[in-house]
Amino acid sequence: MEEELFLRRIREEFPDVTWTSHRYLTHGWDHAVLVLDEALVFRAPRTQAYRDALANEVRLLRYLRPRVDVGIPDYVYESADGSFAGYPLLAGRELDVATFGRLSDTERERIAEQLATFLTAIHETPKSVVRECGVSRQDPQKDLEDLRRDTEALVLPRLAPREVRVVGAFLAELAGELQSTPSTCLVHGDLSGEHILWDTESQQVNVIDFSDRSIGDPALDFYGPLGYGHDFAERVLELYRGRKDDGLLRRAHLYFRRGSLETMADALQGYPCTFDEGYAAFRARFDL
């Protein structure tokens, strides 16, 4: 939704909402975002698929809010046609790697504890609730086929011969891992640093952007913590009280590396990221 149209729609739908300043954010993949007076966040899905899913996202978050200890969006505004919705801004700054690196050991432990309890709670959400909220099931084999196709067509021609061999070995390893199907559950699906907010004043974790929620491998929600290092992800897993299996962290490492290939391919297809970002992550995550 274009900026002026978005602002006009908010005024029309919610005449009691007033503001003196706003920020229009377009760097998100799936939604355009307006932040009003640094107090309210309105999100408008970019595609029909995400518009169709917005009401279900709101319904799921209303179920989860009293059951999780971290802050999550509390949608108090929904447009009549379901094309956008808003919630009070959650405090904190994005927990990127640089920010995490400046935190004390005590703060890192608090974050690990809060992420572990959050993941335990959402992973234990009853399947009946998940189905009622229209959460889709992941198809790991299709995801692998899409990754292989895009990587071979777009990414490999831009890599050095040694890098091509490394990617080939990785895709084979990933395919082998997917031969055995782990237990599935509700997952956030994109628990990366840009969706984890850390409020230093309250020592509180807040988690945003549930648009990639799905029924999938719980290991998907541990690849984000791996961005802060293996030891931190291992600590989150140690504190986690959900169902564990011996290969959970191993699969998380595979998904963590897979993300760099996806970023490079997505950049070459016009998504709001750059090939250089994905390539740098690829070199780091594959120890090249």
Layout: helices, strands, pairs:
Blueprint lengths: L2 H11 L8 E4 L5 E6 L3 E6 L2 H17 L12 E2 L6 E4 L4 E2 L2 H5 L3 H19 L3 H6 L7 H16 L5 H17 L7 E3 L8 E4 L4 E4 L6 E3 L13 H10 L8 H20 L7 H11 L3
Antiparallel strand pairs: 1-2, 2-3, 3-5, 4-5, 6-8, 7-10, 8-9
Helix pairs in contact: 4-8, 6-9, 9-10
In short:
This protein is 46% helix and 13% strand. By secondary structure, the chain is of the alpha+beta class. The protein has 2 domains: 3-88, Phosphorylase Kinase, domain 1, CATH 3.30.200.20; 93-285, Alpha-Beta Complex (Aminoglycoside 3'-phosphotransferase, Chain: A, domain 2).
Relative helix content: 40-55%
Treating each run of at least 4 consecutive H or I residues as one helix, how many helices? 10
The CATH homologous superfamily of the largest domain = Aminoglycoside phosphotransferase (APH), C-terminal lobe
CATH architect. name of the largest domain: Alpha-Beta Complex
CATH fold descriptor of the largest domain: Aminoglycoside 3'-phosphotransferase, Chain: A, domain 2
Shape estimate: globular
Mean pLDDT: 95
What is the CATH C level class of the largest domain, in words?
Answer: Alpha Beta
| Number of spatially distinct domains | 2
Strand order in the largest sheet: 1-2-3-5-4
Radius of gyration: 19 Å
- Biggest β-sheet strands, sense, barrel: 5 strands, antiparallel
Structural class: alpha+beta
* Strand content range: 5-15%
End-to-end gap: 41 Å
Order of helices and strands: HEEEHEEEHHHHHEEEEHHH
Could you give the count of β-strands?
Answer: 10
Low-confidence stretches: none
